[in-house]
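FORM 12-B: Structure-to-Sequence Request
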């Protein structure tokens, strides 16, 4: 207990010093700040300025959450200068304090950039980072770094040993296609393992490396996954899930009954993340899919999110006994807009993940901490009937910064739109584009209009629509951005995916949408389908946004429940002038435990 108390007091004292040293550097908002405020998020993770992309090495250690991320300290663009590892700490996954960069391209083995990787806690509570370095010859190699002072709760200093790289570029892999080491897991033979993305003789491969000491690594003869069809894949993530219940598992959990594994891959060709549930044999380092009929081309696997996310990364949170997912949601306007804002890219709000009862799909839900941001509540509608063409405003909440939960009840499926050609059901995004919110349907479209102008000239529609093919019903979920902004030069697609549930049996469907200025995250069917979107409406510069519930189907639907909350603004890497050590308020600390 004395040791725990000292660790907590030390961390609090360090944060106090950081706050004190920067308080005099806080500045009043400029005109540029005011113009960008409507775009900047209130509770999503983003640095105070400049470019960020992949989340790297999230972990919980010594009572603190850490998030490392791909960061360009030189620019709001990716390709100006070389990438570093940004580093922020938190006590609650909501409020974040930015520290100095953890890794910078200062050595021959990473002279042209410190690219993506992961963090692992080694025996003795020693945090270690494995990352891809772009070396002086511009080849991709794998390097290791260790926390210089593991007892420092903030882990502010990292050492890169001179013996790097620990994994040199293999002879059968091109110099630009070998990257993104995963979180390490410990096999029953006592050896550490990691997954690394590579292209081997033209085949996209997820390689496995083993090590006794985390320094000398040997490649397994067979890859964990390989496919020529998908092209280069990135950011592999292999992690265990419990067959029953919502509890998470440590990354090294294996061998006991009741454990499945998930293999997640990010595909460059589509800039989307895909996953497969299956079983993992650590003796052969082999992964067997639960749905082999989906094939080796991971583009036919299940989608982690049907919207605008990439390069996701999960970690086991031992504090709350859950697996938590992060993912990068980049901007979708222009590079000139990035430069004008002075920043680019956000992380999705952290999501809890667990295995559905069918043993084939993951369920995702915003972590419970978001509820501490809830302030004013509106709604509590029960049994409200939405007839054909109904549009009703949800008043009483600030609709640009809100958390909305609604449950729709479908009285009848008789008017569901018939689809005779099954090929039309193969591309849900195309179907959402053809059957947008403005297109009258049978059962649906019904859902929410968010970030809407008062005249509805601008709005983002998040909705459901039911189709019927022969005697089976398919529930389509869409986020339609075609009316999200009147600005030119903004990417405004219609995103979509099918919700894997029996709507004929349930006759109800839930929708939860997090609205945070330029980010709209939606969770359909209790987290069975997720869609993240970036939106840039013009009206926010001069007027408030509105929030509506609507039905544009010929059949009425009922709102069984609707609740909406204002969300407070979290303190996320707050701006303190141009000082590099950007700090959040004092952070809540927890007992000393470690996890990755």
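FORM 12-B RESPONSE
SEQUENCE OUT:
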């Amino acid at each position: 207990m004395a040791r725990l108390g000292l660790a907590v007091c030390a961390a609090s004292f360090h944060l106090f010093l950081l706050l004190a040293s920067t308080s005099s550097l806080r500045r009043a908002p400029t005109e540029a700040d005011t113009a960008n405020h409507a775009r900047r998020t209130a509770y999503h993770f983003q640095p105070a300025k400049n470019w960020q992309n992949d989340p790297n090495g999230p972990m919980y250690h010594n009572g603190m959450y850490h998030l490392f991320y791909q960061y360009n300290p030189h620019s709001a663009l990716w390709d100006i200068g070389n990438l570093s590892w940004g580093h922020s700490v938190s006590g609650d996954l909501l409020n974040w304090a930015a520290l100095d960069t953890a890794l910078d391209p200062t050595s021959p083995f990473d002279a042209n950039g410190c690219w993506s990787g992961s963090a692992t806690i080694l025996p003795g509570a020693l945090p270690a980072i494995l990352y891809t370095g772009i070396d002086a010859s511009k080849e991709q190699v794998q390097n290791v770094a260790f926390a210089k002072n593991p007892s420092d709760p903030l882990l502010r200093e990292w050492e890169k040993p001179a013996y790097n790289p620990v994994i040199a570029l293999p002879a059968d892999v091109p110099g630009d296609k070998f990257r993104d080491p995963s979180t390490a897991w410990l096999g029953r033979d006592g050896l550490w393992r990691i997954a690394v993305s590579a292209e081997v003789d033209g085949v996209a491969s997820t390689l496995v490396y083993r090590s006794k000491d985390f320094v000398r690594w040997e490649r397994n003869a067979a890859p964990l996954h390989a496919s020529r069809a998908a092209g280069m894949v990135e950011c592999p993530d292999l992690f265990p899930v419990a067959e029953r219940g919502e509890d998470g598992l440590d990354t090294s959990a294996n061998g006991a009954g009741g454990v499945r594994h998930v293999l997640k891959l990010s595909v460059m060709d589509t800039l989307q993340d895909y996953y497969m549930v299956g079983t993992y044999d650590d003796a052969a380092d082999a992964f067997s899919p639960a749905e082999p009929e989906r094939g080796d081309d991971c583009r036919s696997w299940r989608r982690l999110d049907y919207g605008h996310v990439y390069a996701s990364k999960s970690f086991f949170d031992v504090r709350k006994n859950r697996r938590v997912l992060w993912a990068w949601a980049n901007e979708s306007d222009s590079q000139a807009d990035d430069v004008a804002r002075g920043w680019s890219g956000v992380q999705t709000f952290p999501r809890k993940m667990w295995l559905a009862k069918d043993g084939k799909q993951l369920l995702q839900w915003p972590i419970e901490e978001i509820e501490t941001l809830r302030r004013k509540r509106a709604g509590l509608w029960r049994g409200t009937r939405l007839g054909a063409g109904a549009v009703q405003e949800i008043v009483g909440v600030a609709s640009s910064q809100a958390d909305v939960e609604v449950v729709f009840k479908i009285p009848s499926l008789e008017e569901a739109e018939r689809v005779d050609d099954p090929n039309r059901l193969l591309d849900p995004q195309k179907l959402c584009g053809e059957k947008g919110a403005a297109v009258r349907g049978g059962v649906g479209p019904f859902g929410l209009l968010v970030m809407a102008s008062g005249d509805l000239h601008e709005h983002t529609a998040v909705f459901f629509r039911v189709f019927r093919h022969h005697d089976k019903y398919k529930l389509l979920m869409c986020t339609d951005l075609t009316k999200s902004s009147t600005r030119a030069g903004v990417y405004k697609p219609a995103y979509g995916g099918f919700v894997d549930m029996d709507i004929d049996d349930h006759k109800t469907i839930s929708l939860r949408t997090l609205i945070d200025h330029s980010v709209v995250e939606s969770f359909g069917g209790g987290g069975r389908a997720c869609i993240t979107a970036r939106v840039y409406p013009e009206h926010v510069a001069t007027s408030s946004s509105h929030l509506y519930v609507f039905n544009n189907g010929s059949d009425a639907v009922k709102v069984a429940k609707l609740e909406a909350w204002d969300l407070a603004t979290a303190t996320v890497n707050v701006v303190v002038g141009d000082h590099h050590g950007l700090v959040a308020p004092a952070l809540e600390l927890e007992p000393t435990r470690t996890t990755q």
